[in-house]
Every structure is written in structure tokens, then in C-alpha cells.
Amino acid sequence: EKSGLGFFCLKETRYDTKRALAELRQALRLDPDCALAHVYLAIASACLRDAGAARKAVDAARRCGAQPEDLAMAEAYVELDTGSLSSAIERFRSLVELERDSTSMILLSQALSQNGENGEALDWARKACVADPEDFRAPVYAGVYLAYLGRFEEARRELTKSAAMDADYPLLHHTLAFVAREEGETAAAER
Known about the structure:
Layout: H1 2-11, H2 17-30, H3 35-47, H4 51-63, H5 68-82, H6 85-99, H7 102-114, H8 118-131, H9 137-148, H10 152-164, H11 170-182, H12 186-190
Helix pairs in contact: 1-2, 1-3, 2-3, 3-4, 3-5, 4-5, 5-6, 6-7, 7-8, 7-9, 8-9, 9-10, 9-11, 10-11
């Protein structure tokens, strides 16, 4: 329970790393062999650019019997934030092979986009839309990559799909503003 709260603090509260680390350390005091707490500690440490602590937490997760998909996710984040972007992409590809869910596909798409591969990132965002049609994040990321590719009308369509799901997602609003600004619609961008 504490490890889940720690991950929530890290990812869903816009990287509240201080609270996330406190929750994860509490989880490990309660159960030093909690593999998932070590996985999330690796991700939190990577976010803080502490490669040594991140890799140590991955090793601990492995020793504690972490699931292959959890290890793949931790290793991908560690590479993404403290190592090699190309290695991170390969690890996220491994995660997609293990999970085949929208979240892993979105994570892969984000890493690809960071590497300037927005066409392939778009392909994976669209696959995420198919994998889980109710995941409001997938059309948002498709819209982001379409906007990066200068395909604004298509981007707006994807973003509208997400908005229709009652998603109140900052990236959705930011991308809609970006598209409006790029199309010269200053008032719409400001709204």
C-alpha cells in the first residue's frame, strides 16, 4: 500500500519526489523485500538524476523477485533519466512486449518523441488508442506528435477525442493552446 502511494506521489502529483521518497522508504521499513517499492524507488531516484541510487534500487528489486514487466519499466526510466535515450527506447520496447497495454505504448512513444522520432511515436500512440479506447491519454499524445509534425488539423481531431472523454488533463489543454497559436488563433490559444 505504501509503495503504491509512493508511486502515486511521484507520477500523479506532478513529481512530488520528496513525498514519494518518504512513502517508499516507509514501505521498505515495513517490508524490506517489497519488490515494487524498490521498483518505484528506482524510478524516483532516476527522476532526481541519482543514477547510483536508481541502479541500486533496480538491483534490489531484482533480488526481491520483481516481475519482469516492473523491472523493464524501472530499467527504462533509469536509462531515460540518467543514461542513454536509445537504451531507454529499447527497454520501453521490451516493456511493450511484456505488457501490450496502452501505458507501456505511451511510455515508448514519449521516449521516441524525446529522440525526435515523432512519426514512430505517433504510430505507438495510435496503437495505444486501439489497445485501450478509453485511455484519454493516448489521443492526447497522438495529438502532441501530430502537432510536432505540423499536422494541426489532425492534432485537433485527436485532442477533441480526448476532451470528449471528459479528460481534464494539463497536456491536453497545453497542446490545444499550442495548436491554436501555431494556426494563428491567439485568442483561442489564450483561452
